Amino acid sequence: MAMRAPIRVEHLPAPPRFVQPKRIHPRRYLPLIREGMERGVHSVTPPAAYHRVLTMAEAAGADDLALVTNTELTSPGQQQTASNVGEPSAAMNGNVVFYTGNWYAAVSVDAGQTFRYIDPAAAFRQFDPPNSEFCCDQIVHYVKSIDTFVWLLQYGPDTGDNLQRLAFATTANVAQGRWHLFDVTTGALGVDGAFLDFPDLADDANHLYMTTNVFFADGEAGSAVVRIPLSGIASGDVVEQHFVSKDFQSFRVAQNCASRAYFAAHRDTSTLEVFSWDAGTSAPNPQSVGVARWIGGNGYRSRTPDNGRWLDRADPRITGATRAGNELWFAWSVDSGSNQRPRPFVQIARIDATSMTLLENVNVFDPDSATCY
After folding, report:
1. 278: nearest Cα among 257, 264, 249
2. Is pTM beyond 0.90 here?
3. Cα–Cα nearest to 321, from 196, 207, 151, 201
């Protein structure tokens, strides 16, 4: 399918004033992950203590993270476009930086020193389906091999199905506000009547991958992976393949893959289902991998000093995934009590990509504070 001719998006000096839609889609809850067996495998990750903050000079010479530019992004909050579930994302190439949140987007052409803003709701309104408007998940991702920024926007209907919209632009075109569009619809995925939610993006040597949860018309929840050849994005002739499952939710594709992509979801609370998808095959291959048993749910228990309940929206869906050499790393947040940790924390499974066996359970935790992503 050919992408639409480039659309010019206006860059604004300040974020547009947030206008509450007359109605946004209701929150849809994922089913609880079923209980897994106790595997007798635990994390022995030791606690790490940091006694002081390094100076900039020390950090630069310590072969560690160095802060190059520090720009406070206060404008979305000042204009009341920052929701309490922000879900930010960012991508950069050269001096061009693009960032999004649930209701806002901005672009910089001076390496993040200053930004101009975009109204996501109005950007592509002329192409919105009837009874549908932007709301409100967004992801931005940069594909280096074809010099393309990918901007994903989720739309919600007043009535009928919704869609995930992909916008493509080279680095130069991002600076100019020129984007090509391609819509992923429920009809294209063969799930008419469903609602698509919580998207993500990744790429490998040959394809762009989009994931989304699928809430079916019969009340069941599943997930989908959409695969698009990078060559088609570069040429403007987009062809998609997809894999849809009613058995798993919140597929997450690993970043940094080569010609074989990997993605995963929870089979139960002690088993990951890891899928591999080779470039030349039409469907992915699944394999179960046992991990340390964990405790989840919809909402974790943690209070801030002023009694805020900051983890009420947390759940154990996989939110981090990458390949490092021949290892796969998948990460998710778990509730207190897992692995005898007194606070919620992040669990990571290190997996051998060849044998599909667990190498290590890593815990990112603090005994006195909750840790979550």
Report:
1. 257
2. yes
3. 201
